[in-house]
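Fold it.
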Amino acid sequence: TQGWASYVRVKDATISSDAILEIRDGILMDRESGSAADDFLYSMQVVAAGAVIDLNIEVEGPVSCKRWKRAGRLSPPDAALAEKEIPRLASRLLRDGLTVGAASARGLGRLAVIDNSITLVCLDLGSMDHLRAWWSYRAGREVKWPKGARREPVNDQRVGLDRWRFQVDWRPAGPIMVKQGAQGVDYDQLPLMNDVGGKWRAVLPGSSTHGTLRFQAERIVRSLSVLGSHLPQDPKEQVKVGIVEDLFGRVATKKGKLRARGALTVHDCLHRSQHKKAAWHFHKDDQEGFEGFHPRACIAIDRWTGGAMDTALFTVLEPPWENKETGWEPLVFDLDLNSLRRQEGDESAALVMGLWWLIVRDLIRAEIPLGFGTNRGMGQVKVLALRAWHDGRELEPLKAPFHSLPEDWRQHVDSWQKAWRKKWSK
């Protein structure tokens, strides 16, 4: 053969010993009822935010290529390529972080570099001093790097990568939460909370927001009568249309269609208020550390009598929502159209962004409630501002009441709307 082993080695990443493990519950949306589907509750164990992970990557440059040329084989990659690309990779990690593991499109697996602590070390193993330093480092000993070994990351300007980041500044117009799977001591329904740096904060998981936005996208696509027979007859099924799948991802099917990640990544959204204890420790007689939480008693209605149903009283503990100064952090969405353009072309990328713009429009119009209990008045969202970055360049922020689009927005939005109208006017 004319191949060779990889010159890149990625070591197992070790998670800090003080990392906290959490249980996340999830459900599948019933496309017909808009509520949780039966028999689709699942749980997964995740590493809580704040854990520290050591990432170590080694790149070995090739030796002399003379023997390869004499054998008439392909030459190994040029060492100059690694010398150029590794600093670019380090710069990208500093700026964008890294996403690893499962459910990364739904808010999990995001890593950020701590205090710009990336160190690039270049060693020439033809030098005895450098060779000793390398063996000491691999043995876990204290290393005194020889002269010429340390390097700094270079600036990497993103050009033509076609990546978007949208940030939605918002506040709840009423109680909003995602329900914890387990019951508490005194309350039946509790907000999901994360331990962030020793403080507990309510969280809207990216998985919940991702599912809600996908459901809205499917409603938009189902409303287009031109699709007609292309849609599943059973409204409980996900819409198997390329635009929706390109944006939100594709699930595996019995026909062998592979699972594929969509262009959209939805980040977890945390409440700004911090608490000493998690919500399941809340006691009616001891409310210290839970300032702003709203206990509420609810009752199911008897459909026959119109009165309260016997033994159907339940209690809900809602996170703070009335104080505008200590509300929720912004919603953050990343869209990577680069891979989509390579596979499907420019027109498909524009169609995906056209669908995304319709979803953003509905979110601004307060037509997409988030979280738990949305059919009972919870989850109402009021958008205050919309910010966007395209390939690292920030566009002019859009602020309520959103009457007009600035010029740097219009050139993008016009192209998305043009592609969208062209598609559905055929």
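Confidence is low (pLDDT under 50) at residues 63-75.
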